[in-house]
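User: I've been going back and forth on whether these two constructs are worth ordering. Before I decide, could you fold them both?

Assistant: Sure. I'll take them in the order you sent them. The first construct and its structure tokens:
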Amino acid sequence: MRKLLLLVLFCVPAFAAEHPGTDEFVQRAVSEYGLQEGEVRALLAQAEYKQSIIDAISRPAEGKPWHQYRKIFLTDKRIDEGVEFWNENRELIATASKQFGVDEEIIVAIIGVETFYGRITGGYRTIDALVTLGFYYPKNLSSDRSPFFSSELMHYIQLAAEEGLPAAEITGSYAGAMGMGQFMPSSYREYAVDFDGDGSRDLWRSTPDVVGSVANYLHRHGWQPGQPVTSRALASKDAAFNEISKRNFTPTLTVAEWKEKGFRSSDELPSDLPAAVAKLVEEDRKTYWLTFKNFYVITRYNRSPRYAMAVYDLSQEIKKGMGESE
């Protein structure tokens, strides 16, 4: 830690204003995590408030209706480049799939949705993103997520020390997600793996580390290889629409029980298969979907059902492009 942050200590202007909440954060860093006060303050002093980050968190893409959200990720270019990425890394992806028990097309699709296979990893300094959202989170939003981002900031400082990262220079998304797989600092620390065996976990430049880390993340959250993700449901007029999942897609009822509640699968499925139900807004109608454990696992990466559906749809289109049957 000392070697990492002393490099920035002499770059901090003497007149740098403290962010609101700095003292409390530093006290926690010292008392709970054993970090050095001067080094933490030096790093925080380099962070800049960014209004563009506040603007972005106030209107995330996940807020779009499904028919608009889907068009962002289900493009010919993203599908074609997914096929290319898979072909270029076929042995690597197959190895990760086998070791972690995660379907190959899902690994590829996660990276495709997150960063267009490494093309778009974000241009915000991570320290700016986490300080802005941890200390200045907008009060007009429905929930206060500043504690989450403050916690991620604490993880980021520790991660930078553990991995030898230049804490004031790393860039990523407006929310603080980093690398080809867009891992938040806590997820990086917990789930990233050194899949190329070079002694470090590099989610920017090491494709093996990225592929292995995405697979490990899904594995650790309970991915079931070869099992269904979602199935279109036909809803009766008197279906239990009030029981549709909105954010927690833990399967709580069986396919048979959902059928009794008015949601019948369009596919042949085991009647005892646990499921939840999701609603998506199309241009001219609403559609309903039975979602299973693997859908829930994708939502551990991003809680939005639109995100999970985009990953699944992209995975199937890429799989078709590889000449493999669904």
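The second construct, handled the same way:
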Amino acid sequence: MSVGPVEPHVLATEDFLEEVHSFEFWFQAVEGYLSDRPYGRTPGLESPVLSEGDREALVTTLCNYCVGETMALEGASGMIGFAPNRQQKIFLATQAVDEARHLEVLLHRLQELGVEDAEAEIGRRANRSLLTFRDRLGRLVESKDWEAALFAQNVILECMEFTVFQTHAQTADPVTREVLEGIVKDERRHMGFGENDLGRRLAHAPHMRTRLAEIRKELDPLVLGTFEETLEELDTPRDARPELGRSYLAAVARLGFGS
């Protein structure tokens, strides 16, 4: 049961988890940047007319964001069935809602850009490395391997999306920037869930770190390959591209899962 408006960080561990994994906490967290923002953007906010080349690049990029958000939606919802306790099931339910909303706002942005059949465009433009990542995450979820699936989903995938969206938002048109900035706020919460849960488990079973390192060794090249293709589409200068990879690696390290 939620303890209400008390500052969560002053609570005992079990009460803290009860609070931050609750729907009530989720409502409070998202209200500030979802209220009065249909489809993740301020009504009336206009974007400059894009050149055909810029539009094509943005459509391809958003199509791949849809692949990532669909992956996260299916991963979070699939993990609910084997989450170890009620608190984790509730949090994953809020995450699934977040991911579904992200997918919806990205599809709406594609529609604004003139994409009539989003599913066909997503299938045609999907990044190969991202599709391989999707398949690997799907197998971990299907195997009901909690630690491995949580690591791939809420650490690796969420760090990847957080890094890409935050970087893209810096140069995006006003509408796309506002949509991405709202999504990034959710990714922080999802990453925190993965970090906190796995951190507690590693404290009692440090040998698990070796296993997670092997999973990371397999997934990191797929993340970096996704970055490379995304930055190519966005026409990011080649000398600036390594920064995105370093930002991702630093984010994973900050969560306690460095090399």
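Notes on the second construct follow. The chain is about 75% helix and 0% strand. Residues 174-204 form the longest helix (31 residues).
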